[in-house]
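explain this chain.
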Amino acid sequence: MNAKLLLMLTAVTANFCASVQAAETLSSWADYEARAAIVEFVETVTNEASEDFVPASDRIAVFDNDGTLWAEQPAYFQVLFAADMAAAKLKANPALVTESPFKELAEGGLGAVASGGLASLFELLQVSHAGISNRDFQTSVANWLESARHPTTAQPYTAMVYQPMLELLTYLRANGFSTWIVSGGGVSFLRVWAEEAYGIPKRQVIGSRNALSFQDNDGDPMFMREASLSHINDGAGKPVGIQQVIGQRPIMAIGNSDGDFEMLSWTTSLGPSLGVLIHHTDSEREWAYDRDSSIGGLDRGLNEADARGWIVVDMKSDWEQVFPQ
């Protein structure tokens, strides 16, 4: 058997095995165009006989978190965490009710805080995110996740992850991809639970960052969280964050909002690559929202997806199951 024929047979066998693996792994995905396009891309870049073969060291897939790996309604979960922490502080010290954002929170809940715009939300976040050590902050996140429940579903927040995306993460890693979170959420918030929830280690989480200062603290060194941000990992900040941390362009990017547009645009700008948008269309099993939503708004992405060759995953039709059973 000549070398060329052997290579062809090896490639055919590998593709067959990959197809079987996809059928077994992506069991919550309906067998429609979106799933087929993802599988075709993975099979192509892992096929050594393909002109578009990509070595495992360069198979980098980046995922937005809110609305892509877990739900984001009725508010980003990190904002709900901040509101709960602020409410606990107010309960412990009622005198705070005359100060913002405690006053707004007491009078009208999170909606009243949000009506004050980004400045008010940032103020709310800093109540629980700044002026403490990073260690204490992460402990408070872990404790909150153990006891807090989603306001609509009454489920633990970590149960609000998307089963099809868990399967996609597993499928990609089985095919030599490294999987990364690239989120607008806080990196220290995400790192508390991302590995347990998604199998993504702390070092592979990129997010917005509070400024930190280092203190020796008499032999008990710690990082203190400052009331300012050193990086906002949203919009154009996402490819910047990827470049700063990973140092190279991914070949696959998955998001759900226009905050992910630049990340998908950069990823798909050169060579074999794939951009994927999760479109929230299922009002019965999850939520339906896109262009006019203040949370996870998707407008430009829908307008330009076809021209850019991005895959739009219709949650209602492409996912046979949304949340883990």
Observations:
- The first helix runs from residue 3 to 25.
- The two ends are 50 Å apart (CA to CA).
- The first strand starts at residue 60 and ends at 63.
- Confidence is low (pLDDT under 50) at residues 3-16.
